[in-house]
Amino acid sequence: MLRKMLSFSIAVMLFITVLAGCSNSENQESNANGGSQQADEPYTVNFAYHAPKEGNQKEVNELINELTMKELNMKVNLIPLTWDTYNSKLPMMLASREPIDITFAFAFSMPSFIDGGYIVDAADYEEQTKDIYEIFGEEVQAGYIGDTLAGFPTKNVRATPSGIFVRKDIFDALGYKVSDFNVTTDDYSSFDKLTEMFAKVKEEYPDMTPFDGFRTFGLNVFTWVDSLGNNFGVLEDYGQTTTITNWYESEQFKQFAMLNRTWFEEGYSSKDIAVDKELGQAKMKAGNTFAIFASYGANVLAEMKSQTGYEVVQIPVSKKMKSTTAVNGALNVVLSTSENKAKAFEFLNWAYTSAEFNDLLNWGVPGKDWIVNEEGVADYPEGVNASNVNYHSDYGFIYPNQYLMTPWAGSPEGIWEKYQEFDSDAVVSKAFGFNFDPATVADEVSRLGTVLAKHENPISFGMVDPEEQLEKLNQELYDAGLQRVMDEKQRQLDAWLAEQ
């Protein structure tokens, strides 16, 4: 099996500091003994997953247990994590060696997972994961870090363009049309139309925040460049070059920082935008946010309405790009804290094949949180909507297999086929299939992550003067070893290209 390494993506801050894991001999002994549970008892899988903030996870858990007892003779203990607790709650659980069997893991967390000895090599459990291998085929290789198969990708759309999403009621009331906007990085002045719109929102709706959310242009590195595993040395222009450059010295990052600086100084973005980690969709749902920034797929308008309760207008700001990062940005992993790793992998294999399980995680309790309507799609029951639903996620891309889920009302017919077609016209990075192995520069990557955690958000959201702070950021990055990481990336990429 080819040795490949999982690239690091999406977010950039390396938040997780973990303690050393159990030794291989301890893991093997625990695995052989089936952990602390008796052999005649159903094994309970501790499953950490992305959960909505609201909701009765207990009842969802009970329904899943009924399903898993019937089909696997196992039980499940759901461990809910929200977007803003992934970086706070999970690290403490790992450090205290809580018996978590399975979790989703973003690529930016993976170095700490590896250093802590938390990752179980999935390649040793191929017998228990045959269905996953069949589902992904060669894409399974994207889960490799060096010689270790760290985990399995989620099954979802691969190309990841981004856009500005605005409330349609206010957009229409201000007299705008989608055709008024042609936002492109080929002409940065085209972004001025967004600034003009935010000014009108502030004037006409003084209690409304024109722009909010925990992501913005400069932070979504994977949208614009191929980050090749982390943001420390990238291929600009949607990966259409093979020369490694520093994203934080690029004209594009500077332009984005200056734009957000204007929005912040003019009061178009919230004062706490750089520190509040709540999703833009949740802020729009609260009723006082006009626009957010997000990546999207083929069914984004229906998803946004489901997540926010509002009809939205989509203003694209990027092309589509397909990179290795898009495949392995999030993995489902079995942890060394599992008391019975074979059972954990057996459960994970089932999770990729069960439509009912994926529906329960995403939509909640049938009959209370959602129903299947006359059109055969998921919808709210009578009297339930986005503002009062008890449990509702609509982030199917973070669950094992989105393509098994019941589509939500408003989705076009054949939505999952459309998702798979969504990638067909994407710009393919020249490094697609390449995986950077950071083993020889691990210390530098760790130091760079510390530097970035200090500067990236304030600069990207415009809380500080870009001209002054960008120079400081880049000096600290180079002092922390950025050039050595970039040189190593270039060396590995050149070797990979020579073999193609």
Describe this structure in words.
- This protein is of the alpha/beta class and 500 residues long.
- The chain is 37% helix and 12% strand.
- It folds into two domains: 24-157 and 326-427, Periplasmic binding protein-like II (D-Maltodextrin-Binding Protein, domain 2), CATH 3.40.190.10; 161-319 and 434-500, Periplasmic binding protein-like II (D-Maltodextrin-Binding Protein, domain 2, 3-Layer(aba) Sandwich).
- The chain has helices spanning 24-33, 57-72, 89-95, 110-115, 130-136, 168-173, 192-204, 221-224, 236-239, 251-265, 280-285, 300-308, 324-328, 341-351, 355-363, 415-422, 442-460, 466-479, 482-499, and strands at 43-50, 74-81, 102-106, 144-145, 148-149, 152-153, 162-167, 209-211, 289-295, 312-316, 321-322, 330-334, 371-372, 378-379, 427-428.
- The strands form five sheets. It has a five-stranded mixed beta sheet. A four-stranded mixed beta sheet has the order 8-9-7-10. A two-stranded antiparallel sheet has the order 4-5.
- The longest helix has 19 residues, at 442-460.
- It is globular.
- Mean pLDDT is 88; it is low at 1-36.
Q: What is the count of β-strands?
A: 15
CATH architecture of the largest domain: 3-Layer(aba) Sandwich
| CATH uppermost class of the largest domain | Alpha Beta
| CATH topology group of the largest domain | D-Maltodextrin-Binding Protein, domain 2
> Strand order of the main beta sheet, please?
2-1-3-12-6
| Low-pLDDT ranges | 1-36
Question: Structural class of the helices, strands and pairings?
Answer: alpha/beta
Shape: globular
How is the main sheet built? 5 strands, mixed
